[in-house]
Design goal:
Helix content: under 10%
CATH class: Mainly Beta
Oligomer: single chain
Number of domains: 1
Order of helices and strands: HEEEEEEEEEEEE
Shape: elongated
Distance between the termini: 61 Å
Number of strands: 12
Structural class: mainly beta
Largest sheet: 5 strands, antiparallel
CATH superfamily: Thiol:disulfide interchange protein DsbD, N-terminal domain
């Protein structure tokens, strides 16, 4: 019986939809000097019928989209993450106005290379945390890691 239950749980996890995919839309084409600013643009592609929530945190509301850099790398956020304008609607499940993205959302991360960063090839490690819902169900929150190659100038 335990084996059957484990198989059912594994099958459900494998069959869970992946309604959002992340893509790097823009990154530095040339090497970036230590201490210099640059930007990375990420796009969330959202399948029809699904949505993800805006970055605005609302008390007792849905789980907002969150984007941050992993620790321990020679890159830092140089300002707030900018997001495309979400749609605002009255959500009957939360009984409040919320911001959502359908189809696509774009996020711009203003970054800079740490002043003492070593020259050479590197990767900006970006974490995105979000929750997606359709008109019947919300999936559990998910965190995805995105790697963006960046060359630090000599």
């Amino acid at each position: 019986m335990k084996t059957l239950l484990c198989f059912a749980l594994l099958t459900a996890a494998v069959a869970a939809p992946e309604p959002v995919s992340w893509q790097v839309r823009a990154s530095p084409a040339k090497p970036v000097k230590a201490g210099a600013p640059f930007a990375v643009k990420l796009a969330a592609h959202i399948q029809d019928g699904w949505h993800l929530y805006s970055m605005k945190s609302v008390p007792d509301g849905p789980i907002p989209t969150r984007i941050w850099l992993a620790e321990g790398q020679p890159f830092q956020l140089a300002g707030r993450v900018q997001a495309s304008e979400p749609q605002t609607l009255q959500d009957p499940n939360f009984q409040m106005e919320i911001g959502i993205y359908e189809g696509e959302a774009e996020f711009t991360l203003p970054l800079k290379v740490a002043a003492g960063a070593a020259a050479g090839q590197g990767k900006v490690l970006i974490n995105t945390s979000y929750q997606t819902c359709d008109n019947r169900v919300c999936l559990p929150p998910k965190t995805v890691k995105v790697e963006v190659p960046v060359t630090i100038a000599r």
